[in-house]
């Protein structure tokens, strides 16, 4: 993941420089500067995650320029969870929350009440697994 981290690091630098130049060039448009700064921060988060995963897991066979297909044989691909109901709860919660923004505050709170357990289920369902 070293190459991927370097790629997103370049994207971070590009958006950061673009935000600085755009902010200096157009002093009367804070929305564009904020959008470019937000893009730089988001790509910095991806860069941090990929760098962390690279340092945690080391090099992969894909990172080796002299590597062959057989080098990755037998390596675990990852953890694939069985079927679960949390995506349905999360989707219903998002839909009801969005309708609550339009139709009324009471429906928004019901949607948030459905959304929070769905998201917590996603986060903590397989929290004890070490991959």
Automatic annotation (TrEMBL):
Keywords: Cell membrane, Membrane, Translocase, Transmembrane, Transmembrane helix. It catalyses: 4 Fe(II)-[cytochrome c] + O2 + 8 H(+)(in) = 4 Fe(III)-[cytochrome c] + 2 H2O + 4 H(+)(out). It is a multi-pass membrane protein. It holds the Pfam family Cyt_c_ox_IV. The keyword Nucleotide-binding does not apply. Belongs to the cytochrome c oxidase bacterial subunit CtaF family. Associates with subunits I, II and III to form cytochrome c oxidase. This is Cytochrome c oxidase polypeptide 4.
């Amino acid at each position: 993941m070293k190459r991927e981290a370097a790629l997103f690091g370049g994207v971070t630098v590009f958006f950061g420089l673009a935000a600085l130049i755009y902010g200096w060039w157009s002093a009367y448009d804070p929305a564009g500067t904020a959008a470019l700064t937000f893009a730089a921060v988001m790509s910095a988060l991806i860069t941090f995650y990929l760098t962390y995963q690279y340092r945690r897991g080391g090099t992969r066979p894909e990172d080796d320029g002299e590597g062959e297909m057989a080098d990755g044989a037998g390596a675990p691909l990852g953890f694939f969870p069985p079927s679960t109901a949390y995506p349905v709860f999360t989707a219903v919660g998002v839909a009801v929350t969005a309708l609550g923004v339009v139709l009324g505050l009471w429906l928004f709170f019901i949607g948030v009440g459905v959304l929070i357990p769905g998201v917590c289920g996603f986060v903590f369902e397989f929290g004890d697994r070490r991959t």
